[in-house]
Amino acid sequence: VQVKTLPTKPIDGQKTGTSGLRKKTSVFMGENYLANWVQSLFDSLGDEVKGTSIGLGGDGRYFNKEAVQTILKLAAGAGVKKVYVGKDAIMATPAMSALIRGRKLYGGLIMSASHNPGGPKEDWGIKFNYKSGEPAPEKITDAIFGYTTKISELKMAEIPETDLSKIGNHSYGDFEVEVIDPVEDYLALLQEVFDFEMLRNFITRPDFSLVFDALHAVTGAYAGPILVEKLGAPQSAVRNGVPLEDFGGGHPDPNLTYAHDLVEHQWGDHAADFGAASDGDGDRNMVLGRAFFITPSDSVAMIAANAQEAIPYFKSGLKGVARSMPTSGALDRVAEKEGLKCFEVPTGWKFFCNLMDADMCSICGEESFGTGADHVREKDGMWAVLAWLSILAYRNKDIPVGEKKVSVEDIAMEHWAKYGRNFFSRYDYEGVESEAANSMIEHLRKVQADSKPGDKLGDYELETADEFSFTDPVDGSVASKQGLRFVFTDGSRIIFRLSGTGSSGATVRLYIEQFSDDTSTHKQDAQEALAKIIKVALDVSQLSKFTGREKPTVIT
Ligand code: VG1
Ligand code: CO
Question: Which parts of the sequence belong to the Alpha-D-phosphohexomutase alpha/beta/alpha domain (predicted)?
Fold first, then answer.
């Protein structure tokens, strides 16, 4: 192909956060904004990327289809041999991870701002996943950022627009584009992980019902082929199942606030036995029973506790488990009882991936509705849904139709009776002024530095206070300043950190956890159980004084 060299200039602020680069769509649509970042990515990969094949796709949001054409020109310009693009530019994040691994690709680009709203006035984003399907490690994202600050030219191949609406091959000289079905490889992998026959038998029972809310995001493209066609769920089980460029005006974030339709349904008269939702790019999940919420920190623990029995992929046991630091210790309790290693990493899926590559961890999770396993190197919403359905199917396989089944709530209550319950909640304060948020964190740093074991915060006695820092046990890399935490002698914790996925302003996250092994408390509402310690957290941080906020935007 003919490659044209175009002059460009560095643009400020192209630093990736927790998961890729996210900005307002209009920013990305500005002159060379996207091209500069993608060129910097290819520059940082250098000769290594020449002659390789990569994947490309996204969550269906506004501007993705246009962005594909720019990225293809730059890929060809960088000497990439072939790009596999999802039809209609669709590819869920875990599906991209599966594609990279399954087809041994060099890497893949995912166009998504995940759970952030989409549209011309909302957010856009892009992330790069590397060879084993994992989100680019900081070594790569730092290098990309370095290049964005000194970029001077774009190398764009002169190729025509590729029709993304049809599956098929396109050759432009020595550069190839193949438009592929975004579901096929991923579904094939899920069929290796789960017992689809057991799932189908269970899902088609006349006394079982399920609803899945795709929130008009990418899993709309997956729920039909997987849940309906393969597993026999009725079409009506899939809600908001058509991916839309603006997610129907909604916030494609599967939590109790933004997935309000589903929540209403599950707390209403026609609730299904099982309810679930996924986010913009299909890596998050929310699991509900009838009027019952499984907090993600519990979800990963409950899946880990049941995986060996219910999921063929884990039939010879788990290699280990891992959670992000703010995620509750429910998983640690399972690990301890079952004799498994449990790792604690910073927030962000990339920190799990070395552990998985080194066969040290099979299942991992984050409190932020991310759950997954080492079949891919991303959190995986549909995997979590099928994991829960597998547990239900397994537990109900000998219960005749019409008799009382084991419910989501039963599984949770039994789990807590056995391992104790880690009450957990997260308060998000979105759209806070950056300066105010930073001052609050500075204040907390001081409080932390001045505290010592035995100090009293309210009724709680401090065991340690620190700023979380992580040394990767596999490659020794260090990530510091990953959240301020106050741990009390009874095991309760309060944690503060700032979000790294916003597109403007700051989001303060406050995480609260408290353990109870007294079964008589286990039915309590988390907000009630945590009321006292939440007050301590708000007092110690002086959050309302710094941010002017009396209430969080989102509580999960
Ligand atoms: C948030 C979550 C984190 C998650 C990340 C990406 O990051 O807290 O656990 O890995 O989003 O998820 P932050 O820095 O905003 O707290 V996704 O589904 O938005 O790619
Ligand atoms: Co996501």
Answer: 14-153, 185-288, 297-419
CATH topology of domain 421-555: TATA-Binding Protein (3.30.310)
Domain ranges of the chain: 3-181, 186-416, 421-555
Query: Which residues sit with their C-beta closer than 6 Å to ligand 1?
Result: 18-19, 114-115, 279, 283-284, 324, 347-349, 366, 368, 370, 499-501, 509
Q: Measure Cα distances from 533 to 25, 158, 419, 487, 512 in Å.
A: 39, 60, 22, 11, 7
Average pLDDT over residues 160-173: 97
pLDDT digit string, tens, across residues 76-101: 999 999 999 999 999 999 999 999 99
Question: Shortest CA distance to 373 belongs to which of 56, 133, 147, 120?
Answer: 133
Based on the residue annotation, tell me whether 362 is a catalytic residue of this protein: no
Model confidence pLDDT, tens digit, residues 393-428: 999 999 999 999 999 999 999 999 999 999 999 999
Q: Whose CA is nearest to atom 4 of ligand 1?
A: 348
Question: 372 has which bridge partners?
Answer: 364
H or E, element range at 493: strand 493-498
Residues β-bridged to residue 85: 56, 179
Q: How far is the CA of 211 from the centre of ligand 2 (A)?
A: 20
- In the CATH hierarchy, which fold is given to the domain comprising 186-416? Alpha-D-Glucose-1,6-Bisphosphate; Chain A, domain 3 (3.40.120)
Are 131 and 42 contacting, i.e. CB atoms less than 8 angstroms apart?
no
pTM of the model: 0.94
